[in-house]
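Problem: given the chain below (111 residues), write out its structure.
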Amino acid sequence: QVQLVESGGGLVQPGGSLRLSCAASGSIFSRNVAGWYRQAPGKERELVATITSSSSTSYTDSVKGRFTISRDNAKNTVYLQMNSLKPEDTAVYYCVVSYYWGQGTQVTVSS
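Solution.
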């Protein structure tokens, strides 16, 4: 059984930064793709960023240059550094490793 525990969400003003973390239990982390999705109210879930086991990354266009995904295989943890946050980044953010999902963490960007 794999569990993913997210942390780091919260309320931030436009232009601010947050760092999300997702810690995985079990032994699957280092050899699997990890990623972050988000879902805003009334919208479909959206893939934000992914990182492969060899740390190749990809991003959706709307976050390129502002968000950075990274991983620490020794800690079984994937991160999402979010800078220059905008109100449209407000959503519940979900960590995914292989086909396992975290519980989600709320990110709210508002003045």
